[in-house]
């Protein structure tokens, strides 16, 4: 994992094969790909505070996980100091690692986790669970004024699928299993969990559960909260184990309390999740709608229909323009085909190409079921003025769907800031919220005097509403004002969510980034209830303090 950016060291984004991207970004954001890049400190030059780990606690941790599983080298401490939010990357590239963990421990199993927890509690130390490190809500950051020893508990060695119950379609999986690893272990037995968030390659099952994650195919498979049937969690009072039953009426759901708890209640060691047979057929088709409004209306009607697509995604015109700008250089034949399509859309369908919205809809199942779904969706798309443009764009989207975060690093290297905010609301409120959030971002750009770009797509459909996923980008005035200007834009967008009937986060969690809006989202009484839960389970405030509330 890069200490200064997203993903693996040898992978990065390039614009060399995308001729339209550089002029697009220069025009709309004011960033020149060919000018000097932003500076970044060297890892060895970071002023890393001395560890506060006592010799006694270190000895207990070594006893718990072995000498090889206790690390306090520079790279481990820096990587585990933050997640991967824009704020995190700005700070770490400057050499500001805040209050880094004093030690990183790598337990091998649930027994090791229990020993680590007991040792830390006896020493009144802080414990912060760490999965893949991809969190962008500040859930991994120790409190800056924390005077106690901070122990980061890296779960990467707990990475196995323990059991598959074929008859119940359930799998017990250790919490540290990364997305690709757990899918491969399931695939060889003919199963899939069907959970594919943007962070899939670098995030873990435990992280998904702890933040109530959502995947790109959640329309069919559900969010992680729907998939998770039971959990094992090491808590201050012992190991919590819930039963993998289909439904229960045993008071407030303990399983639900763990979902989205971000390490405040304990360390998740495994989860039992619903799995599905790998579908015989899987296809993602691309569609074009005359407007974003028409696309949203089509997605709403699809959610009410007998079709059950795995993916329903539609971009606004601004994200559609950006998507077209990221296309690779076309052959002469491809260009002629594209020109012919534009002519058809403009002259025969009456499209204003500047308002056009790109959509992807995915289908899975038996060949007959896929054909049935496609027939239903095709009728709805036609009713809303949409046009199918085939499998090609959908296949490319499927291949590149996990690469988007690398673009953020590419822009940051060149002095630009780009980040995301996501929300969910009812179908009735969807367009008013979209308009309000766009207006809020554009006003924030104007207030701080920068040129910026904001775009959005609807990423997940539900019976009663949908998720809107916004991306904004701009070039800050200078390096000294970057964080303050970022805060101005991010806060404006988040405030527009709660002011217009949306939730402050659909699937990124709360952490520190979003905790400011919790009272507006769940009410003062709700925050009191959540705080009482955390204080009751963890009276010493040892488990990831300062997050959520």
Description:
The chain has 549 residues and is of the alpha+beta class. Among the domains are: 41-156, Uridine Diphospho-n-acetylenolpyruvylglucosamine Reductase, domain 2 (2-Layer Sandwich), CATH 3.30.43.10; 161-277, Uridine Diphospho-n-acetylenolpyruvylglucosamine Reductase, domain 3 (2-Layer Sandwich), CATH 3.30.465.10; 281-400, Alpha-Beta Plaits (2-Layer Sandwich). The protein is 38% helix and 19% strand. Strand 8 and strand 9 (238-241) form a beta hairpin. Helix 2 runs antiparallel to helix 5 and helix 11 crosses helix 14.
Summarize, please.
The protein is of the alpha+beta class. It is 38% helix and 19% strand.
Main features:
38% helix; Alpha-Beta Plaits; five-stranded antiparallel beta sheet; seven-stranded antiparallel beta sheet; 549 residues; alpha+beta; 19 helices; Uridine Diphospho-n-acetylenolpyruvylglucosamine Reductase, domain 2; Uridine Diphospho-n-acetylenolpyruvylglucosamine Reductase, domain 3
The share of residues in extended strands comes to 15-25%
What's the tally of helices? 19
Q: What is the radius of gyration?
A: 24 Å
Oligomer: single chain
- SSE-based structural type: alpha+beta
Number of strands: 18
Instruction: Give the mean pLDDT.
Output: 95
Low-confidence stretches: none
* Biggest beta sheet summary: 7 strands, antiparallel
C-alpha geometry: globular
Q: Level of helix content?
A: 25-40%
Distance between the termini: 29 Å
**CATH fold topology of the domain at 281-400:** Alpha-Beta Plaits
Q: Per CATH, which architecture of the domain at 281-400?
A: 2-Layer Sandwich
């Amino acid at each position: 994992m890069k200490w200064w950016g997203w993903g693996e060291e040898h992978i990065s984004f390039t614009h060399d094969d995308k001729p339209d991207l550089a002029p697009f970004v220069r025009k709309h954001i004011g960033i020149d790909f060919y000018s000097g890049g932003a500076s970044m400190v060297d890892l060895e030059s970071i002023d890393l505070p001395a560890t506060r780990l006592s010799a006694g606690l270190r000895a207990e941790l070594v006893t718990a996980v072995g000498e090889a599983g206790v690390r306090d080298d520079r790279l481990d401490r820096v990587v585990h100091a933050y997640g991967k939010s824009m704020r995190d990357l700005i700070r770490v590239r400057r050499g500001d690692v805040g209050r880094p963990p004093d030690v990183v421990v790598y337990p091998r199993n649930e027994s090791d986790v229990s020993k680590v927890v007991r040792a830390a509690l006896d020493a009144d130390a802080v414990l912060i669970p760490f999965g893949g490190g991809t969190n962008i809500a500040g859930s991994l950051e120790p409190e800056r004024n924390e005077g106690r020893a901070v122990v980061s508990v890296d779960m990467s060695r707990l990475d196995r699928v323990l059991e598959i119950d074929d008859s119940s379609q359930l799998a017990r999986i250790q919490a540290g299993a990364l997305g690709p690893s757990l899918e491969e272990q399931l695939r060889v037995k003919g199963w899939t969990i069907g959970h594919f968030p943007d962070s899939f390659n670098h995030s873990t099952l435990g992280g998904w559960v702890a933040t109530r994650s959502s995947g790109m195919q959640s329309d069919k498979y559900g969010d992680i909260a729907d998939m998770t049937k039971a959990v094992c969690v090491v808590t201050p009072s012992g190991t919590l184990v819930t039963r993998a039953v289909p439904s229960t009426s045993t008071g407030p759901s303990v399983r639900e309390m763990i979902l989205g708890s971000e390490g405040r209640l304990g360390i998740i060691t495994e989860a039992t999740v619903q799995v599905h047979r790998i579908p015989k057929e899987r296809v993602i088709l691309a569609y074009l709608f005359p407007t974003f409004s028409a696309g949203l209306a089509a997605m709403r009607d699809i959610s009410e229909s007998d079709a059950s697509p795995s993916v329903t995604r539609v971009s606004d015109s601004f994200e559609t323009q950006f998507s077209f700008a990221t296309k690779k250089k076309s052959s002469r034949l491809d260009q002629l085909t594209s020109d012919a399509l534009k002519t058809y859309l403009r002259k025969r369908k009456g499209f204003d190409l500047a308002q056009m919205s790109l959509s992807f809809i995915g289908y899975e199942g038996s060949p007959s079921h896929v054909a049935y779904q496609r027939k239903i969706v095709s009728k709805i798309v036609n009713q809303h003025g949409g046009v199918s443009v085939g499998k090609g764009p959908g296949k490319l989207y499927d291949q590149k769907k996990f690469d988007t975060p690398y673009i953020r690093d590419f822009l940051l290297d060149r002095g630009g800031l780009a980040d995301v905010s996501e929300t969910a609301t009812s179908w009735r409120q969807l367009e008013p919220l979209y308009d309000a959030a766009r207006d809020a971002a554009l006003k924030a750009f104007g207030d701080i005097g920068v040129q910026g770009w904001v775009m959005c797509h609807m990423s997940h459909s539900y019976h009663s509403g949908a998720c809107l996923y916004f991306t904004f980008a701009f070039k800050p005035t200078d390096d000294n004002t970057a964080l303050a200007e970022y805060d101005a834009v991010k806060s404006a967008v988040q405030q527009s969510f709660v002011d217009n009937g949306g939730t402050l986060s659909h699937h990124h969690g709360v952490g520190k980034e979003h905790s400011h809006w919790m009272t507006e989202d769940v009410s003062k009484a709700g925050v009191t209830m959540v705080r009482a839960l955390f204080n009751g389970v963890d009276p010493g405030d040892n488990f990831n303090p300062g997050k959520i509330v």
